[in-house]
Amino acid sequence: MENHGQNPIRGLSPAVRDTVEQMLLGGESYFEIAAYLAGHGLQTGVESISEYAATLNANVATLRKAQNDLRKMLAEVERCPALETSDAVLRLAMGHVLRALTESDGADAASIERAIHAAVGLINAAAYKKRADFTAQLSVERGLDSVGGMLFTALARERPALYNEVYAFLKEKKAALRRERGESACPRSLKTSGG
Fold first, then answer.
1. Is the pTM of this model over 0.85?
2. Is 100 within the bounds of a domain?
């Protein structure tokens, strides 16, 4: 396996390297990129650029695949709220492992290991998203509770009839929301046995 760490493009400043990557992704020729690099003090051949492009393309493909997997997993969790995020990730990981086993001639340990690492990455990304969503929702709820508390205190004191009407309306909406959350669009086979 080649050592891509020795590629001179990796040693460039982030701004120049980002420009080179954008040129590669934009379809510029290796000769145009070599001329650009020469203008920034790096004399390099198209072989180095080609090697860097291959690594970049592999990284972009891996990133796109991971984003696609995350979208699939989040869509499954959204479609089926009773499904735990970790269950969705495990299903996706099993799909990757099974695909790696069936697509290779024998058990290719490297592709299975990549699939498992991808699953761990998905679990981490899903946990981060869930935590960020929870934190954002908690902040919104705290803000609404604070404003609502002030509003209800003022309404109860100054306009009791309106307070009673608004209180009854909100109580009805909360009950409807709880009923909606209690119903699941998931088939029973997707629900976990523990829940």
1. no
2. no
